[in-house]
Amino acid sequence: MQNTVIINDIPYNLDGILADCWHRLINGVKSSKHPFHCPTLGTVNNDEVELRTVVLRKIIPAERTLIFHSDERSPKIDQIRKNNKISWLFYDEKSRIQIRLKAKATIHHLDDIALSRWKDSRLESRRCYLVTPAPSVLIDFPEDGLPKNLEVKDLTEENVAEGFQNFVVVKTKVTSIDWLFLNHVGHRRAQFLYEENEVKKEWMLP
After folding, report:
1. What whole-number distance in Å separates Cα of residue 124 and Cα of residue 49?
2. pLDDT band at residue 197, thresholds of 50, 70 and 90?
3. Gene3D superfamilies, per this entry (predicted)?
């Protein structure tokens, strides 16, 4: 039987599918218009699952690592501290490819990694971490919580510096990849499990 999947007239074996997964993730960082740029992140909150959209900030394929930024006061950071097992969901509607990742998260706050990512971010992005009193706090009227006297045109390194206290970098190391290709003639699915020194690659029923 055929041991490949045809996508856009190109045959992919398991090695090719795995390489394509990482290629798509890398492109998700490079372009804000790429369907993988804003994936869904899942965390565990006691006995419930919490989902939200985040911006994919960086990919390190050699370390199987995906990175996103957050506010240290956000509930998801507390959830990750209590249970660092997280999941990612990506979907490309045009190519009909879904990728689900399981990973373990590490939080970087007020350290060299956080400082490096902070310096690489835009001033308007840093401004987001000046929200008061904190993300997810209930309020009486709809507002963004940002300083009223700090317009984007007035931003400087100095007047957004305080936001660094709330800035965190979350590095997530992938432990498995679940790949799904939706096709009207028959869906195809594969699984990749990262073990100590190898990747276990298997076809699965969709």
Report:
1. 31
2. confident
3. Electron Transport, Fmn-binding Protein, Chain A
